[in-house]
Design goal:
alpha+beta, four-stranded mixed beta sheet, Ubiquitin-like (UB roll), binds manganese (II) ion, six-stranded mixed beta sheet, 725 residues, Beta Polymerase, domain 2, Hypothetical protein af1432, 21 strands
C-alpha cells in the first residue's frame, strides 16, 4: 500500500470502504494534531505530523472506523505535546478521549520490557491494558511505522533495543490476535535491523531461486489446477506464496539447514468456498501425490488459539520436489491475514450468523461477536468491544522491572508473598508508583509496587480477609497457627504453674517429661499447648504428677527433693498469673511491656506480639509508634478493677544527693509506703548526685504517685519521676 502523504489522500482512502465518513471531522483531528506538534520533527527530519498521518493510513488497511483513525491522528499529542485529555475530550468527545488515553498508557510502557525473558507477561500486560481492541490496533500500526522509519535513529543500541522489543512483544501480540500480515512485517523489519547480513544473504538467495524456479512454480500450479478440476473444484484459487526472509531464517535456525530448493521458499495455497471443499481438495492432492509423513495438520477441526484455520500438508509434487500446501476457505483466509480485524468487515459482507459460526472457535472473538449480535449498529459494536483476554489478571512491576502476574483484586500483600514468603511475612507497608498505600489496596495493571519490610513485623491474621492468592493465604495461616500454638503454650504453662503450686510443686519441663507416656503426648510443649487450649484438663496433669511423685517417694526417694523444692515468690507480671485486664481474647497470654511498665490506673492498650500473646503498654508509650502502621495488632483493653490486688512493677528515676544515708532515706520512704523495691540500679554517679533507677512493686498509679510525692518531699531527693524507656 502506498504511503499516505496528505490528509486528502487519507480521507480518500477511508472513503473507499466507508463512503459516509465525516471527512471534515477527520480533517479537524489532523489540524488539531498538526498544530499541537507544531515545529516538532521526526528523526528523519520530516515534520512530526507525517507520523500520525501514516499511522492513520496503515489503519485504513483494516477498514477501521473514524474513531480509530482520529485516535491515530491524535495518538502522540498527549504524550509528546502540551495537549491534555480534557482538551481532546472537549474537541472530539469522550470516546476519543478514552482511546487516546489507552494508546498513551501503552506508549508509556515502551522500553520498559528490558528483560525479554518476561516477554510473555509483558504481552499479557499490554493486552490487558488495551481494553478496547482499537487501542491495540493503533499501537501496533504506530509501532509498524516507527519500524519502517527506524533507520533514521542514530544510536545503534537504541535501534537494536526497539527491534528486539518489536519482535518479542509487538509482533507476537499481532500474532496473538491473528494479524499475520502485520506480524510478518514487524518481524521482518526487526530481523533486518538485528541480523542485516543474514537477511541480505537470504534475500539474494531468494532472488536467485525465484528466477530459476518460476517455470517450476507455474508448472506445479497448472498440475494442481488440473487435478482439482477433475475433482469437481473448478473455482478453487491456487497460487504460490513466497515465504518471508524471517520465517526462512527461523526454519534454518530450528532445523540447522541451509535452503537449497524452491520448496523451501514457496508454499502453495488453495482457496475454496466451503469447508467441505477444503477436504475435497485435500483428497485430490493426497490421491495424486505421495504425502510427506508427519506434515499433515488439520487446523480446521482444531483451530489455533488465535482463530487461524487451514489444512496443512506436504507432498512429493509434480517435479519430484517437496511441495507444502495450505487449504482453506475465503473466510478462513481473511481471518488468517487480518485476524480479529477481519471481523469488522462482516458488518458489510456476510451475515452475523455466518460471523458467529466462523468465530466460534476463538473464545474472545466469539464474545465480541455476541456483542455484535446484541448491538443495534456497528458503531455500538465497536464501542462495546472490550478485550476479554487476561481480564482476570493484573500485571505489576517490581522496582527492578520484573513483572509479577497476579489475579485481579490482588493486594500488596499478595504481591509481597508472590516475590518471597519472607517478604510477605515481614511486610509492613507498600508504595504503588511511589505513593504509600494501605496493604489492602487493589493493584492495577502496570503499577510499580515496592514492599516495605521490617524484620520485627509478622503476618497479621486480618490480612487473610483481603488477600486473593492461595500462596499468601496459606502462608498467613501457617504463621497464625504457629503463633496460636505458642500462645496456648504460654497459657498452658501459666495454668499448670498455678495448679501445681497449690500442691507444692514447681512447674518445669523436667517435671512434665516423665508424665508424657501417661498423658499420651510426645512433647512437653504439646502438654502445655493442649492445657492452654483446653484439650487436656489441668486436673489430669496434676493427677499424673501426684501419682508420679508418690511412685518416686516410695520407689526412688531421691527424686522427691527435686519435686518438692520450696517455691520462691515470683514476680507476678510475667504472664504466669491471671491478669486483671478486661477485653482480652480468651486463651491469649498477657505481658506487661518492659518499656513503660503499666500499672493499674494507667490508660493502656494491648499489642499482639508474635509468640508472646498480648503485650500491655501505657497508652502514651513511645514504643507504640512502631505499631502505628498495623492497627490490626492493637487490642483495646482496660484494667479489671474487680480482681484481687497484687503488685505491679513500676519504674522510677531519681536524682539523689551524694551524701551519707541518702539512699537509705529513699528506701525507707518506699518501705514506709508499702512499696517493695525489686531492683535498683545506679545509672550515673557524679560528685554531687547519683542517678538511680528503681523498680518498685505497687498496687496502682495512686500508690505510685503517693510514693513519688513522698520522695519529693525529702531534702536528699533532687528530683524523681516515673521512668519509661
Ligand atoms: Mn507514535
Amino acid at each position: 500500500m502506498p504511503a499516505i502523504d496528505s490528509i486528502d489522500g487519507l480521507i480518500e482512502q477511508i472513503k473507499a470502504y466507508d463512503p459516509g465518513v465525516d471527512g471534515e471531522l477527520i480533517r479537524r483531528a489532523y489540524a488539531f494534531a498538526a498544530k499541537a506538534h507544531g515545529a516538532q520533527k521526526r528523526a528523519s527530519g520530516e515534520p512530526y505530523i507525517t507520523h500520525p498521518l501514516e499511522v492513520a493510513g496503515l489503519l485504513t488497511e483494516y477498514r477501521l472506523d473514524s474513531a480509530s483513525i482520529i485516535t491515530a491522528l491524535l495518538h502522540d499529542t498527549v504524550e509528546d505535546t502540551g495537549v491534555t485529555l480534557e482538551q481532546v475530550e472537549k474537541e472530539f468527545g469522550q470516546e476519543i478521549r478514552v482511546l487516546v488515553d489507552g494508546v498513551t498508557k501503552l506508549s508509556r510502557l515502551e522500553g520498559k520490557s528490558e528483560d525479554l525473558r518476561q516477554a510473555e507477561n509483558f504481552r499479557k500486560l499490554l493486552l490487558a491494558m488495551s481494553e478496547d481492541l482499537r487501542v491495540l490496533l493503533v499501537k501496533l500500526c504506530d509501532r509498524l511505522h516507527n519500524m519502517q522509519t527506524l533507520k533514521y535513529i542514530k544510536s545503534p543500541e537504541k535501534r537494536a533495543r526497539i527491534a528486539r522489543e518489536t519482535a518479542e512483544i509487538y509482533a507476537a501480540l499481532a500474532e496473538r490476535i491473528g494479524m499475520r500480515n502485520l506480524k510478518e512485517e514487524l518481524q521482518d523489519l526487526a530481523f533486518a535491523e538485528l541480523y542485516s547480513e543474514a537477511r541480505d544473504s537470504i534475500v539474494k538467495r531468494l532472488e536467485f531461486l525465484r528466477e530459476q524456479g518460476q517455470n517450476e512454480v507455474n508448472h506445479t500450479i497448472a498440475t494442481i489446477r488440473e487435478k482439482l478440476n477433475e475433482a469437481g473444484l473448478p473455482n478453487a484459487i491456487i497460487y504460490g506464496r513466497e515465504k518471508k526472509p524471517f520465517s526462512i531464517w527461523k526454519k534454518m535456525e530450528r532445523k540447522n539447514i541451509s535452503f537449497e530448493q524452491l520448496s523451501d521458499i514457496i508454499a502453495f495455497r488453495i482457496i475454496v468456498d466451503t469447508v467441505a471443499e477444503c477436504y475435497q481438495a485435500l483428497g485430490a492432492v493426497h490421491a495424486n501425490w505421495h504425502t510427506v509423513p508427519g506434515q499433515f495438520k488439520d487446523y480446521i477441526s482444531t483451530p489455533k488459539s488465535n482463530g487461524y484455520q487451514s489444512l496443512h500438508t506436504a507432498v512429493i509434487g509434480p517435479g519430484q520436489q517437496r511441495v507444502e500446501m495450505q487449504i482453506r476457505t475465503h473466510e478462513m483466509h481473511k481471518v488468517a491475514e487480518y485476524g480479529v480485524a477481519a471481523h469488522w468487515t462482516y458488518k458489510q459482507g456476510a451475515t452475523k450468523a455466518q460471523a458467529l459460526k466462523d468465530g466460534k472457535q476463538l473464545k474472545w472473538v466469539r464474545e465480541l461477536l455476541e456483542i455484535l449480535e446484541q448491538s443495534e449498529n456497528p458503531e455500538e459494536f465497536l464501542e462495546n468491544t472490550k478485550l476479554e483476554m487476561y481480564h482476570d489478571q493484573v500485571f505489576c512491576f517490581t522496582p527492578k522491572g520484573d513483572i509479577i502476574a497476579l489475579p485481579r483484586g490482588a493486594t500488596p500483600v499478595d504481591f509481597a508473598y508472590a516475590i518471597h514468603s519472607a517478604i510477605g511475612d515481614t511486610c509492613v507497608g507498600a508504595k504503588i508508583n511511589g505513593r504509600i498505600v494501605p496493604l489492602k489496596a487493589q493493584l492495577k495493571n502496570g503499577d510499580q509496587v515496592e514492599i516495605i519490610t521490617s524484620k520485627t513485623q509478622t503476618p497479621s491474621p486480618s490480612w487473610e480477609r483481603f488477600v486473593v492468592t492461595g500462596k499468601a493465604r496459606s502462608e498467613i495461616r501457617k504463621f497464625v497457627r504457629t503463633q496460636q500454638k505458642s500462645e496456648y503454650v504460654n497459657l498452658g504453662k501459666a495454668i499448670l504453674a498455678k495448679t501445681l503450686k497449690a500442691e507444692g510443686l514447681e512447674l518445669s519441663d523436667k517435671l512434665i517429661e516423665p508424665l508424657l507416656p501417661k498423658l499420651n503426648k510426645k512433647l512437653v510443649e504439646d502438654v502445655y499447648a493442649e492445657v492452654g487450649e483446653g484439650l487436656i484438663t489441668r486436673q489430669a496433669v496434676l493427677d499424673a504428677a501426684l501419682e508420679s511423685r508418690k511412685a518416686a517417694s516410695t520407689g526412688m526417694g531421691g527424686m522427691l527433693s527435686n519435686l518438692t523444692k520450696p517455691l520462691r515468690r515470683k514476680a507476678k507480671s510475667d504472664g504466669a498469673a491471671p491478669m486483671p485486664i478486661k477485653g482480652l481474647i480468651p486463651g491469649m497470654a498477657i505481658h506487661f511491656a518492659k518499656c513503660c511498665h503499666p500499672i493499674p490506673g494507667d490508660r493502656i492498650v494491648g499489642i499482639v506480639t508474635t509468640g508472646k500473646g498480648i503485650t500491655i503498654h501505657v497508652m502514651d508509650c513511645e514504643t507504640l509508634e512502631n505499631y502505628a502502621d498495623s492497627p490490626e495488632r492493637w487490642i483495646s483493653v482496660a484494667w479489671d478493677t474487680g480482681k484481687e490486688e497484687f503488685p505491679h512493677i513500676s519504674r522510677i528515676r531519681a536524682h539523689i544527693s551524694h551524701e551519707p544515708a541518702a539512699l537509705a532515706t529513699v528506701t525507707q520512704v518506699i518501705a514506709k509506703e508499702l512499696g517493695n523495691i525489686s531492683n535498683l540500679k545506679i545509672t550515673h554517679r557524679s560528685t554531687d548526685f547519683f542517678e538511680i533507677l528503681l523498680d518498685i512493686e505497687v498496687r496502682d498509679t495512686k500508690h505510685l504517685n503517693n510514693i513519688i510525692a513522698n520522695l519529693r518531699s525529702r531534702e536528699v531527693v533532687q528530683s524523681v519521676e516515673r521512668w519509661q524507656s
